[in-house]
Amino acid sequence: MDPELEVFVPLFPRTSLSDPVASREGLAGLAAAVPVPEVEGLVVEEWTVPAVVPGAPGVPVRVYRPAGARGAVVWLHGGGYVMGTLDTEHPWAVRLAAGSGQVVVSVGYRLAPEHPYPAALDDAWAVLHWVAANAGLLGVEGERIAVGGHSAGGGLAAALALRARDERGPAIRFQLLNQPQLDDRQETWSQRNFTDTPWMNRERVAASWGFYLGGAEATPFAAPARAADLGGLPPAYIGTAELCPNRDEDVAYALRLLRAGVSVELHQWPGTFHGSQAIVSAEISQRQNAELGDVLRRALAG
Q: What domains lie within the chain, and their CATH numbers?
């Protein structure tokens, strides 16, 4: 493990996901300790996006608009489909908007177990349609829309790309997948062996999938690694952490995308663990966070 990260491991709460409410409180406490950079000229707005599923509530979003943006990313927070809010994602959305110079639309999707699959995906789907229909309002070009996210949010972003392809949804230019949660089967080497890694381990991943699926059978829109065909998807960036249960399924997904003719940038970060980029004092975390912004800038502004 990177020595700058290792010293922080004893400070992480060693809890399971068995109590979603307690887990959410723990994540909120960790997020509150992350400094939020001051970004000159960044406009932050709150919106509610109309649902696309009858009877579903509107979807809260927080829009980050830096000056001169040409594109936008529908950004989905992590938290194992169980945790996370617009507030816990705020430090990262600010960094992504500042680093990329592009509009970041952070999505406050519904959480499991209260709202199992497909609630979160339906919320993300509604926001993707809203961004495409309101590109002019957001000050961006309609052909410069990406999807992205971290962990469970990365899984949702990958599912969005699949759904947009299969259901002829809005055109997606790029997918930015950081340590995405893609495969409920947990059959890879990293899923089977990382039972005591910091923050996320096999037990927590299993609980996450259990809450998200709610007993239903997984489909490719729930677990994108199950998709038989990855052809015709947008170019992708996939970032993985060495000591992360999701590592091997992410590498496998990247290879499958490549074999299907999809351009992929794959970066395996040595000595890191799932979510360790939140330790912003570490040099490798600074490199990780900067790269996400730089990759998005190149994808949308180029």
A: 3-301 (3.40.50.1820)
